[in-house]
């Protein structure tokens, strides 16, 4: 055993003393550990790079999908709003027409039976009656004076 200690002492002396010898042994151990870890570090780095690339692609995919959904949503909203406005305009026109008809009915002085008959006679018959009554506007039977004049020709 003394021989092992003598070898150790000789190596320590060659290394520059016991502290330098211990430092050299520690550094050798560290280097060996680094060399043993290199394959694992490369695998971990490659895996991290793949995961990062997949994550970036996934994020990009969902961002583009979100943008498409937002555009489609905005288009759908605009179409719904346009439809509602069109309906409101049509409904408003219809309401105004009904209101105008009601106002016209209030101001017109006519007999319901004459009005019903007016719908049943042709423009030619109405033109003859209108002419025979001195072209009185009460005998137009729903036709315009231009239509009646045209029918008389």
Describe this structure in words.
- It is a single chain.
- This protein has 153 residues and is mostly helical.
- The protein has two domains: 2-80; 109-153, no CATH class.
- Helix content is 86%, strand content 0%.
- The protein has helices at 2-15, 18-107, 112-120, 123-132, 145-152.
- α1 packs across α2 and α4 packs across α5.
- The protein is rod-shaped, with a radius of gyration of 52 Å.
- The model has no long low-confidence stretch (mean pLDDT 84).
Low-confidence segments: none
Percent of sequence in beta strands: under 5%
Number of helical segments? 5
Distance between the termini: 147 Å
What class do helices, strands and sheet pairing give?
A: mainly alpha
Largest sheet: none
- Per the principal axes of the C-alpha atoms, what is the gross shape? rod-shaped
Average pLDDT, all residues:
84
Taking Cα atoms only, what radius of gyration do you get, to the nearest Å?
A: 52 Å
Pattern of helices and strands: HHHHH
Question: What is the helix content?
Answer: over 70%
Number of strands: 0
Q: How many independent structural domains?
A: 2
């Amino acid at each position: 055993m003394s021989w092992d200690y003598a070898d150790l002492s000789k190596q320590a002396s060659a290394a520059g003393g016991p502290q330098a010898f211990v430092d050299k042994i520690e550094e050798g151990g560290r280097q060996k550990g680094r060399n043993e870890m290199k394959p694992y570090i490369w695998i971990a780095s490659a895996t991290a790079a793949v995961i990062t690339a997949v994550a970036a692609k996934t994020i990009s995919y969902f961002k583009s999908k979100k943008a498409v959904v937002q555009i489609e949503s905005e288009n759908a909203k605009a179409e719904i709003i346009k439809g509602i406005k069109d309906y409101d305009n049509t409904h408003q026109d219809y309401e105004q027409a009904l209101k105008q008809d009601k106002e016209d009915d209030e101001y017109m002085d006519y007999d319901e039976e004459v009005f019903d008959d007016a719908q049943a006679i042709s423009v030619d018959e109405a033109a003859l009656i209108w002419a025979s009554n001195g072209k009185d506007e009460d005998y137009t039977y729903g036709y315009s004076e231009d239509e009646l004049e045209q029918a008389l020709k």
